[in-house]
Amino acid sequence: MESTQEELAFESKSDKYYLGVDVGSRSINLAIIDRNKNLVESIYIRTEGRPIQSIQNGVTLLKDKVG
Fold first, then answer.
1. Cα–Cα distance between 51 and 23 in angstroms, integer?
2. Which of 1, 42, 39, 40 is nearest to 23 (CA)?
3. Which of 29, 30, 33, 50 has CB atoms 3.0–4.6 Å from 58's, for a disulfide?
4. Would strands 4-11 and 39-46 be described as parallel, antiparallel, or unpaired?
């Protein structure tokens, strides 16, 4: 199965960040980069047959890590 990619933007107090989501058949990669394309944080999660729930959990984990 091919993976798909979607980009979402969000802003903090004074900077802009982007959330990248790469969904595959077995795993999901999520990454946050800044406007200069520097990696801020990333995580790898196995989907375990539940891709939507895995994405939701991943976003929560990133939020906890980054603040």
1. 8
2. 1
3. 30
4. unpaired
